[in-house]
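job 3f2a | input accepted
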Amino acid sequence: MPRDIAPLTSALEYATPDEQSDVYSLLAAWNQSIQTALDRGGWSRLQEIRDQYLEDVIDLVDTAATANGINWTFLEECVDAYPPGVGDHHCSSILANVVARCVIRTRIREGVDTIPTWALEYLADVTVEDDSEWAWESTAAFGWAVGHPKVAVLDRALERAESDDDSWAMGILTHATFADPEAGIDLLEQLLKSPDVVEDLVFVGCLHAPFEQDFPDFPQCWEPDTELDYQVEMSDDLHERLLAVIGSSINPGRLRHFDDSYRFNLERAADEYGPANDT
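job 3f2a | predicted structure (279 res):
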């Protein structure tokens, strides 16, 4: 057995599903093994270990955190031990994934009001630079907290987009639309009308998935449809409102030019809701 993964394989062997105390040892072993792999074999070796073991580690942490309902106190202890945005550990790829799952579960099963504020702030603080792109992808679940009484999700997404963090705002837009399609279209309208946001059709493309499926593709290594009963409800009125927002916000020439590249009827949006229709 390669030396760099010895602590990890040992921790996996002795970890008991549902046993939270084993997770602390598992996270420490993961962190040690990833760092050793980087030091000795570089990025390619890290990728090998991640591909082979990451899903198993995530599953064990997720199982321990949700064995008897979501144990937010346990998860908070884990993220306090391995906080986001500091760049001195490799556990965010695991913890961001599990926290994201639990945010989505809580929204669907219990309602947005019961999502802990700290969990949302944790997701918002994960960065590509310090926590890896793999971890950062899961943070789009922040969008499932749209309507939260203490965290202004739409405002935060707009602020980040206006500060040149378009990529994060795109993920939030997608997930917020899964959670609340009307709020997602509200956010799209704010983004398209902001003078400080450059992208337009890229944001429109972020709404493809919620109009085609019930769950997002991130967080990875998870099949939410096997445990959650949820359907995105897209009415004809919502679809029409979306076209109105697009048509009134984006140059009609661009809409007609790119019509074939999008699932929405951009040409109709331009013809029926473009500036020429203003009275």
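job 3f2a | Residues 20-66 form the longest helix (47 residues).
job 3f2a | closed
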